[in-house]
Amino acid sequence: MNGGRRRAHDLAHSVVSFVTTWRIQYCATACVVLFLATLARYWVGYDPSASLGGEGWHLAHNLLDKHQFANPFEPLDTGPSALLAPAWPVFLALLMKTFGGGNAGDVYAIRWAAVLIIALTSALFPVFSRRLGMGELNGIIGACIWILGKPMMVPWDGFYGAILLAVACYVYRGYLEQPAQRAGRSAWILGCLMGFLMLTIPAVAPVLAAGLAWEIWRRKIAFFKESLLPLILLPALIVTPWTIRNYLVFHSLVPIRDDFGLVLWEANNDCAQFSAVLNWTSACTENRHPNRDLNEARRVLELGEPKYFELRQQEALHWIGDHPARFLKLTAIRFVFFWMPSEGWSILTNATGTIHVGQGRHLERVVIYLVTLLSGAGLLILYRRDARSAAICMSCLTLYPLVYYILQFEDRYRYPIMWVTFLLGALPITTYMMRGFWHALYARERSAAEGASP
Length: 454
Hints:
By secondary structure, the protein is an all-alpha fold. Helices cover 71% and strands 1% of the residues. A two-stranded antiparallel ribbon has the order 1-2. It is globular, with a radius of gyration of 25 Å.
């Protein structure tokens, strides 16, 4: 009797080991294939005439040439800066120092770094999907949809923030499942990720704050006894050197990045339209930006960044108070375009306020629109399967974009949470496919059984 039970136990153990090994090999193979497919889809060649611009590029050059985090604007050297969070310009400077081959060589290295990050993110879709309760197959389908649509590759901080946020969500979901005595290592890893996220894309702060609030509510006093150091003090410690640097340089308490007043004003003034592209191409004399106007750059130099940005913020807040209807209209339009982006489609706004969408990246837009619409159903399906994973996805989709509804629209702002949309958007497709598969299998077995009956 005991021998029979032992043989049955050994057989069950062998089956489980085989299935587990097969599943790991299947997932690893899928990840490699997705990585290579994404590389092929986003492949970039060397262009000797290529160049980049923008504040991050200028800060990186100053870091490399003068060893200063300064002079982000093109018209004039304006002095020390906290315009951007430090991680992205520092990373750019490291790339240029390592692979620098002149301006075109720098651009080539930066573009390839972005391609590799995108490929790594899509390759890990099955891993993220499994941890968040959606299964490996859903991640594979989501990655295939991503590769098909090929969201535009912009060598900016968004894709780097995306993979950091995805890994943080992965670690946090595992942390929630672990008993308190075994969650220590996950908590320390999560704390490190939170700190680096804040130094890369500070807009994730509401998402991180929501996670901490949930943990405090869930564990109460136990949280402060066991997780205060890794989940609160460690991220603060990672951010502290940059905060101290800003205080020593500007003699005032400056956040991780101090450009909020500038971007708020740029999106809310008499000349402002909902899109950055429209604002950049506007001929309105009031819409002056230090990166495009020498006189404004001189004002930054005279006043210093914190004071200049504070004045811009006050102007924006006064304008919003004087024009609430216009502000609400711009906010509503920016909300729509954040989720249904069309910046690459030559958006124009006529005198009546009607938005016209021209020609552009049709396949990319159709794919993004499709997964965005499907992601609502995907979130509902996920909630029924795994409420905690649904809450994590929901916090990313609801809290992260809040600040961007009051700023001018740029499609790159959505990149850090685009992976969530694609995973959730793939879930209804995966669910439908699996139901069809099991229905077909059941029908086949039933037909075979009926054929075997006398």
